Amino acid sequence: MTTLTTTPDGTAARRPSPPSSPAGARRTPRQGGTVLAVPALVWYLIFMVGPLLAIFVIAALHWPGMLQPVSFAGLGNVRTVLDDPVFWDAVRNTAVQLAVALPVMIVCAYMVGYYVAQRPPGHRVIRYLLFIPGLISTPAKAMVFYAALSPDGLVNGALQSAGRGALTDAWLASPSTALACLIALDLWSGIGFTAVLFAARLSSVPDELGEAAQLDGAGHWRTMWTVHFPVIRDYVGVVTMLQFLWTLFGSAQNVLLLTQGGPGTSSTTLSFLVYQKAFIAADLGYSQTVGVFLFLTGLAGLLVIRRVFRQTY
C-alpha cells in the first residue's frame, strides 16, 4: 500500500506506507496457563490437601476401627497420647535417629561426593556402585541386614572366626542395639545415593575456583569446605530436607520389617507408632493424633534446616 506525499518543490510523490501490524499482534496474549494448571491443582487438592485435612479431623475423633461407630473426642486423644509412655519412647527414638543419622549421612555423603567430583580413576564405576543401594527395594535391604545381623548371621560369624565370640549378640533383638541397627541401615542406604547427588552438583562448580584455592596453598580439605561448600550451600540444604523427611516419615517400613518396634519399645519410632496404632491396635484417633505431631515436627524441621543452610551473601 502506498500514500501520496508532497515534496518541498510542490510535486506529489508516492511513498510506501509502513506495513500494518497483524490484528492479532495488537491483542493482549491469552493467559492460558491457569486453565492448563486446573487438572494438576484439582489433583493436588484432592489427593494432597484432602488427606492432610483428614488427619486433623480424625485426630479429634474416637474411632476404634474402620467399621466401628465414630464419636467426637475433642482434645481427648491429645491427652491420651501425651500420657502414654510409649509415645515418649517413640519421640526419644526418633530424636536419636535424626540426631545421629542425618549429620553423619550428609557429612559423609558430601565428602564422598566431593571425591567423586574430582574425577579419580574409575569415577564412573564408583558412581554406579554408590547408586546401588538406591536401586534395591526396601524389603531386599531389610533382608540383607537381617542376614548380616541375625544370631547366626554374617556379623556374628565373622566375630567367631576372628576369635571375638564374646562380642556376638542378637543385634536386632537386643534393646541396646536394635535402634543402632536401624540407623546403620539408614546410613548404608542413604550415603551412597546422596553422594551421587552431591557429585552431580559439585561437577557444575567451575574448576577455576578449586585451582585458584590450591594455588593459594589450600589443600583438598580446605578447598572442599571453604570453597566448594559455600557455593552449593543451598543445594546441601535441599538434600538435607529430603533426607530429613525420608528418615522421619519413612522409618516405619524398616522397623516393621526388622524389629517390629521391639524389643519392648526400644526401636519404636513415631512413624511406626502411627502404623501400629492404626492397623494393629485399630485406634485411628490415637494414630492420627501422633500423625499430627509428626507433621508439625516435619514442618518445624524443614524451617530450621532452611534457615541453617540459607545463603549468607
Describe this structure in words.
The chain has twelve helices and four strands. The protein has 313 residues and is mainly alpha-helical. It has a single domain (84-309), classed as Orthogonal Bundle (MetI-like fold). The protein has a two-stranded antiparallel sheet. The chain has a two-stranded antiparallel sheet with strand order 3-4. A hairpin with an 8-residue loop joins β3 (61-62) and β4. α5 (138-149) packs across α10 (233-258). The longest helix is centred in the N-terminal third of the chain and has 33 residues, at 85-117. The protein is globular and about 75 Å long. It starts with a strand and ends in a 5-residue tail after the last helix. The model has no long low-confidence stretch (mean pLDDT 86). The chain crosses the membrane at residues 36-63, 95-116, 128-149, 177-200, 231-249, 285-305. Residues 91-305 form the ABC transmembrane type-1 domain.
